[in-house]
Write a structure and sequence with these properties.
This protein has 6 helices and 2 strands. The chain is mainly α. Helix 2 runs antiparallel to helix 5. The longest helix has 28 residues. It is elongated. It starts with a helix and ends in a 9-residue tail after the last helix.
Protein backbone atom coordinates (compact mmCIF):
# COMPACT_ATOMS: atom_id res chain seq x y z
CA UNK A 1 0.00 0.00 0.00
CA UNK A 2 0.96 3.63 -0.48
CA UNK A 3 1.28 4.53 3.24
CA UNK A 4 3.00 7.88 3.54
CA UNK A 5 2.07 8.81 -0.04
CA UNK A 6 -1.64 8.30 0.68
CA UNK A 7 -1.23 10.41 3.81
CA UNK A 8 0.41 13.20 1.79
CA UNK A 9 -2.46 13.05 -0.70
CA UNK A 10 -4.95 13.18 2.18
CA UNK A 11 -3.27 16.37 3.43
CA UNK A 12 -3.44 17.85 -0.08
CA UNK A 13 -7.14 16.97 -0.34
CA UNK A 14 -7.89 18.39 3.12
CA UNK A 15 -6.13 21.68 2.30
CA UNK A 16 -7.99 21.79 -1.00
CA UNK A 17 -11.36 21.11 0.64
CA UNK A 18 -10.90 23.80 3.29
CA UNK A 19 -9.69 26.41 0.81
CA UNK A 20 -12.41 25.47 -1.69
CA UNK A 21 -15.15 25.97 0.88
CA UNK A 22 -13.71 29.27 2.09
CA UNK A 23 -13.61 30.50 -1.51
CA UNK A 24 -17.31 29.66 -1.93
CA UNK A 25 -18.05 33.14 -0.56
CA UNK A 26 -16.39 34.61 -3.66
CA UNK A 27 -19.13 34.14 -6.24
CA UNK A 28 -21.84 36.05 -8.02
CA UNK A 29 -25.52 35.55 -7.34
CA UNK A 30 -27.29 32.95 -9.49
CA UNK A 31 -30.06 34.08 -11.82
CA UNK A 32 -31.04 30.59 -13.03
CA UNK A 33 -30.39 27.13 -11.60
CA UNK A 34 -30.98 23.56 -12.64
CA UNK A 35 -33.03 21.65 -10.07
CA UNK A 36 -30.73 19.93 -7.56
CA UNK A 37 -32.62 16.66 -7.94
CA UNK A 38 -31.18 16.43 -11.47
CA UNK A 39 -27.68 15.91 -10.07
CA UNK A 40 -28.02 15.05 -6.36
CA UNK A 41 -27.61 11.29 -7.01
CA UNK A 42 -24.51 12.00 -9.12
CA UNK A 43 -22.95 13.80 -6.18
CA UNK A 44 -23.79 10.91 -3.84
CA UNK A 45 -22.08 8.50 -6.27
CA UNK A 46 -18.98 10.73 -6.32
CA UNK A 47 -18.85 10.98 -2.51
CA UNK A 48 -19.22 7.20 -2.17
CA UNK A 49 -16.41 6.79 -4.69
CA UNK A 50 -14.22 9.21 -2.77
CA UNK A 51 -14.79 7.31 0.48
CA UNK A 52 -13.99 3.97 -1.15
CA UNK A 53 -10.86 5.42 -2.75
CA UNK A 54 -9.53 6.56 0.60
CA UNK A 55 -10.25 3.16 2.15
CA UNK A 56 -13.37 4.05 4.10
CA UNK A 57 -14.99 0.63 3.62
CA UNK A 58 -15.69 -2.37 5.83
CA UNK A 59 -13.70 -4.74 3.65
CA UNK A 60 -10.17 -4.72 2.34
CA UNK A 61 -8.64 -7.03 -0.21
CA UNK A 62 -4.89 -7.23 -0.48
CA UNK A 63 -2.98 -4.79 -2.67
CA UNK A 64 -2.71 -5.61 -6.36
CA UNK A 65 0.81 -4.13 -6.68
CA UNK A 66 3.56 -2.67 -4.55
CA UNK A 67 4.00 1.07 -4.37
CA UNK A 68 7.64 2.08 -4.43
CA UNK A 69 9.07 5.58 -4.12
CA UNK A 70 8.95 6.33 -7.86
CA UNK A 71 5.27 5.46 -8.20
CA UNK A 72 4.49 7.00 -4.81
CA UNK A 73 6.00 10.38 -5.59
CA UNK A 74 4.58 10.34 -9.13
CA UNK A 75 1.06 9.87 -7.75
CA UNK A 76 1.53 12.55 -5.08
CA UNK A 77 2.64 14.81 -7.95
CA UNK A 78 -0.42 13.84 -10.00
CA UNK A 79 -2.73 14.56 -7.06
CA UNK A 80 -1.07 17.95 -6.47
CA UNK A 81 -1.22 18.79 -10.19
CA UNK A 82 -4.87 17.75 -10.40
CA UNK A 83 -5.87 19.87 -7.43
CA UNK A 84 -3.79 22.80 -8.74
CA UNK A 85 -5.63 22.43 -12.07
CA UNK A 86 -8.95 22.81 -10.23
CA UNK A 87 -7.72 26.02 -8.64
CA UNK A 88 -6.47 27.37 -11.96
CA UNK A 89 -9.97 26.81 -13.34
CA UNK A 90 -11.70 28.31 -10.33
CA UNK A 91 -9.55 31.44 -10.35
CA UNK A 92 -10.01 31.71 -14.12
CA UNK A 93 -13.80 31.57 -13.67
CA UNK A 94 -13.76 34.24 -11.00
CA UNK A 95 -17.14 34.90 -9.45
CA UNK A 96 -18.94 32.79 -12.09
CA UNK A 97 -18.09 29.58 -10.18
CA UNK A 98 -20.94 27.83 -8.36
CA UNK A 99 -21.01 24.44 -6.70
CA UNK A 100 -24.36 23.68 -8.26
CA UNK A 101 -25.55 24.01 -11.82
CA UNK A 102 -26.40 27.65 -12.36
CA UNK A 103 -26.03 30.79 -14.45
CA UNK A 104 -25.20 34.32 -13.23
CA UNK A 105 -26.38 37.63 -14.67
CA UNK A 106 -23.11 38.26 -16.52
CA UNK A 107 -22.45 34.62 -17.35
CA UNK A 108 -20.45 33.88 -20.46
CA UNK A 109 -18.69 30.90 -21.97
CA UNK A 110 -15.10 30.88 -20.76
CA UNK A 111 -12.89 29.41 -23.47
CA UNK A 112 -9.39 30.35 -22.33
CA UNK A 113 -6.96 29.01 -19.75
CA UNK A 114 -7.88 25.51 -18.57
CA UNK A 115 -11.23 25.84 -20.38
CA UNK A 116 -9.36 25.76 -23.70
CA UNK A 117 -8.24 22.22 -22.79
CA UNK A 118 -11.48 20.78 -21.35
CA UNK A 119 -14.97 22.12 -20.66
CA UNK A 120 -14.98 20.92 -17.04
CA UNK A 121 -11.41 21.38 -15.78
CA UNK A 122 -12.44 21.30 -12.11
CA UNK A 123 -13.83 17.80 -12.58
CA UNK A 124 -10.78 16.82 -14.62
CA UNK A 125 -8.45 17.86 -11.82
CA UNK A 126 -10.46 16.19 -9.08
CA UNK A 127 -10.75 12.95 -11.06
CA UNK A 128 -6.99 12.92 -11.69
CA UNK A 129 -6.31 13.48 -7.98
CA UNK A 130 -8.68 10.67 -6.95
CA UNK A 131 -7.12 8.26 -9.45
CA UNK A 132 -3.70 9.09 -8.01
CA UNK A 133 -4.92 8.00 -4.57
CA UNK A 134 -6.53 4.86 -5.98
CA UNK A 135 -3.24 3.86 -7.62
CA UNK A 136 -1.45 4.44 -4.31
CA UNK A 137 -4.00 2.36 -2.44
CA UNK A 138 -3.51 -0.44 -5.00
CA UNK A 139 -6.69 -2.17 -3.82
CA UNK A 140 -9.73 -3.19 -5.86
CA UNK A 141 -12.09 -1.21 -3.61
CA UNK A 142 -10.05 1.97 -4.16
CA UNK A 143 -10.09 1.46 -7.91
CA UNK A 144 -13.85 0.93 -7.78
CA UNK A 145 -14.09 4.14 -5.76
CA UNK A 146 -12.16 6.07 -8.41
CA UNK A 147 -14.48 4.70 -11.10
CA UNK A 148 -17.54 5.79 -9.10
CA UNK A 149 -16.04 9.22 -8.42
CA UNK A 150 -15.33 9.75 -12.12
CA UNK A 151 -18.79 8.47 -13.06
CA UNK A 152 -20.52 10.78 -10.58
CA UNK A 153 -18.80 13.89 -11.88
CA UNK A 154 -19.12 12.86 -15.52
CA UNK A 155 -22.88 12.48 -15.03
CA UNK A 156 -23.05 15.86 -13.25
CA UNK A 157 -21.09 17.40 -16.13
CA UNK A 158 -23.73 16.09 -18.54
CA UNK A 159 -26.44 17.85 -16.50
CA UNK A 160 -24.38 21.05 -16.73
CA UNK A 161 -23.96 20.53 -20.47
CA UNK A 162 -27.73 20.40 -21.04
CA UNK A 163 -28.32 23.39 -18.77
CA UNK A 164 -25.58 25.58 -20.28
CA UNK A 165 -26.56 24.69 -23.84
CA UNK A 166 -30.06 26.02 -23.08
CA UNK A 167 -28.85 29.09 -21.17
CA UNK A 168 -25.85 30.32 -23.20
CA UNK A 169 -26.26 30.65 -26.98
CA UNK A 170 -22.57 30.12 -27.81
CA UNK A 171 -22.11 27.08 -25.55
CA UNK A 172 -23.04 24.56 -28.27
CA UNK A 173 -20.18 25.70 -30.52
CA UNK A 174 -17.76 25.51 -27.57
CA UNK A 175 -19.07 22.04 -26.69
CA UNK A 176 -18.45 20.86 -30.25
CA UNK A 177 -14.88 22.17 -30.25
CA UNK A 178 -13.51 21.28 -26.77
CA UNK A 179 -13.63 17.89 -25.02
CA UNK A 180 -15.66 17.54 -21.82
CA UNK A 181 -13.29 15.96 -19.25
CA UNK A 182 -10.25 14.34 -20.87
CA UNK A 183 -8.40 16.43 -23.47
CA UNK A 184 -8.69 14.95 -26.98
CA UNK A 185 -10.80 12.01 -25.69
CA UNK A 186 -14.03 12.66 -23.76
Amino acid sequence: MGGIYVELCAVLWLAWLISWNVAAFWRAKSTAEAPRNQYRLHFVIAVLGFMLTFGVAPWFLGPLWQVGPALGWAMVGLAAAGLAFTWWARVHMGSLWHGGVSRCADHRVIQSGPFALVRHPIYTGMIAAVWAVAVLQARPVALLGAVLFALGFTLKARVEERFLTGELPDYAAYRDRVRMIVPFVI
